[in-house]
Amino acid sequence: MPRIPGQIDVAKTEAILDAAVEVIGERGLAAPMEAIAKRAGVSKQTVYNHYGSKAELMRALMTRRVEAITAPLRDPDAAGNPAQALEAYARSMLETVITNKSYSMMRVIMMGANEMPDVAQEVFEAGPRAARRQLAEFLKLETELGRLRVENFDQAAEFFSGMVMGHSQMRSMLRLPSDKTPEEYVRLAREAAERFMRAYAP
């Protein structure tokens, strides 16, 4: 069966990003692009054709991660139900702690931040800041629709994220075992959403 136009590029892009997560998680920010290309099964030139620099590659990695985590905020099944969307978003955030895979890469990024500040800046802008911005935009829309009453959207987004992640994020960054079961994480997500809704009820 012939491939749909663009399908090969999409497959290569995903292979490069998946390889980058693994290689950078193992070898740190200084990992050469050649190693990422080899792991992805593509040429070094292919990697550079997709991403002209390590900073661009890291931005793409963070963008993909944020899009996956924030997907519940755009879920049409939760339309009109901000509590459901927030609970699902909280579970999505906590999944990154439970699985711990993405935090291996985040740890090495933090360790190499002094040597590669431009890459660290890209990671922050395309990662944590972008996620908070998307949550703030969600809260703004829900306020305009009358389902929430939020005055400072960025601050409220920070409050919700901090309430959900708490010490779990730090434990994961330090490679400490989780102090919660998967069921407790589910209850935490629900409780955070319920408390947030009560705090910002219209």
Which features would summarize this protein structure in a list?
about 200 residues, mainly alpha, Arc Repressor Mutant, subunit A, Tetracycline Repressor, domain 2, 2 domains
Short account of what is shown:
Helices cover 73% and strands 0% of the residues.
Low-confidence stretches: 1-8
Give the strand content. under 5%
> Secondary-structure element sequence?
HHHHHHHHH
State the CATH superfamily name of the largest domain: Tetracycline Repressor, domain 2
The computed structural class is mainly alpha
Q: What is the highest CATH level, the class of the largest domain?
A: Mainly Alpha
Under CATH, the topology of the largest domain is which?
Answer: Tetracycline Repressor, domain 2
Count of DSSP H/I helices = 9
Anisotropy-based shape? elongated
Report Rg.
19 Å
- Overall residue-averaged pLDDT value: 87
Kindly, what is the distance between the CA atoms of the first and last residues, rounded to a whole number of angstroms? 54 Å
CATH architecture of the largest domain: Orthogonal Bundle
Largest sheet: none
DSSP summary, beta strand count: 0
Helix content: over 70%
The total tally of domains equals 2
Domain HTH tetR-type: 10-69
Keywords: DNA-binding
DNA-binding region: 32-51
Pfam family, one: TetR_C_7
